[in-house]
From TrEMBL:
Organism this protein belongs to: Alkalicoccus saliphilus
Stated family: Belongs to the EamA transporter family.
UniProt KW Methyltransferase keyword: no
Protein name according to UniProt: EamA domain-containing protein
EamA domain: residues covered: 2-131, 151-276
Membrane-topology annotation of the record: Multi-pass membrane protein
Principal place of residence: membrane
TM annotation in the entry: 30-49, 55-76, 88-108, 114-131, 143-166, 172-193, 205-224, 230-253, 260-278
InterPro entries named in the record: EamA_dom (IPR000620), EmrE-like (IPR037185)
Superkingdom of the source species: Bacteria
Pfam families found in the cross-reference section: EamA
Location in the cell: Endomembrane system
Length: 279
């Protein structure tokens, strides 16, 4: 069941990333992140109030840290994508966002088992393959600065999974509320410093709100998963969001899938199947 929650998280994040990719063609990324996270916080407040979960210092601190990690991670990731080769950037960020929570889980004593570790390796490989672009992809140069931004984005997105795992299960809904709030506040401060125009055309709102709902829903299913299972497995499954992003792009806008991405999808499905029969 924990693995299923992780896969639902990946599905929600992957769909959200697809929507964000479409709307950021017309709206600045900062504004998409700002309003999506604000909507997520609005959605989570009544949910947290009626959940019966405890509003604790732990939920506030780790939720805010998770939100800042998520918001800053997205901003660095999108900025790196705009500057470097998309395949390189997405591979580095995707792999680190998967490996870091797995490593953290192993460090705190989680032992997934030999077969599960083999599945973990397969899924990490699949993320690399799914993120890889061929000659039809972006051809811009990838500098050391872009590589560092990609790595930092992956570390921060991996940290998001770790921070949400720390509070007790009876604090989960408040943790997600403060995660969305922390992400919103971090981006809001950046926009205030830049004195940016925060107006958005009405045509973009359904996409922005849809992205915010999906990210929030994914965070909820993630904490539900880690409350009953291993973080090293649930977070790894949650990091499979690129799998669902490319599937949505293929189904909805007939985006071309290269041989690497097709291979990555097959490897991911194999790794998931192995996890299903071993966990």
């Amino acid at each position: 069941m924990a693995l299923l929650y992780g896969l639902i998280t990946a599905l929600a994040f992957g769909a959200g990333d697809y929507i964000a990719g479409q709307v950021t063609k017309r709206v600045p990324t900062l504004l998409v992140v700002l309003y999506a996270q604000a909507f997520g916080a609005v959605v989570m407040l009544p949910a947290a109030l009626v959940s019966g979960h405890s509003l604790s210092v732990s939920a506030v601190i780790w939720g805010l840290l998770g939100g800042l990690s998520l918001g800053l991670g997205f901003l660095l990731y999108f900025h790196a994508l705009s500057l470097g080769k998309m395949g390189v950037v997405s591979s580095i960020a995707g792999i680190l966002s998967a490996v870091i929570p797995v490593a953290a889980g192993l460090l705190i004593g989680e032992r997934p088992g030999t077969a599960a570790l083999a599945a973990i390796a397969m899924i990490v490989l699949s993320i690399f393959l799914i993120s890889k672009k061929d000659a039809n992809g972006k051809t811009g140069g990838t500098t050391v600065k872009v590589l560092l931004q990609s790595a930092a984005a992956g570390v921060l997105l991996g940290g998001f999974f770790i921070f949400l795992h720390i509070p007790a299960s009876g604090e989960s809904m408040w943790t997600v509320f403060f995660t969305m709030s922390g992400s919103f506040l971090g981006v809001a401060v950046l926009l205030i410093v830049r004195r940016a125009d925060i107006r958005v055309k009405k045509q973009a709102w359904p996409f922005i709100l849809g992205n915010g709902f999906l990210q929030t829903f994914g965070a909820v299913t993630y904490v539900a998963g880690v409350n009953i299972g291993l973080m090293s497995i649930v977070a790894l499954a949650g990091a499979l969001s690129p799998l669902f992003t490319v599937i949505f792009a293929r189904l909805l806008i007939q985006e071309y899938l290269n041989k690497f991405q097709i291979s990555g999808i097959l490897v991911a499905l194999s790794g998931i199947a192995l996890l299903v029969v071993t966990t």
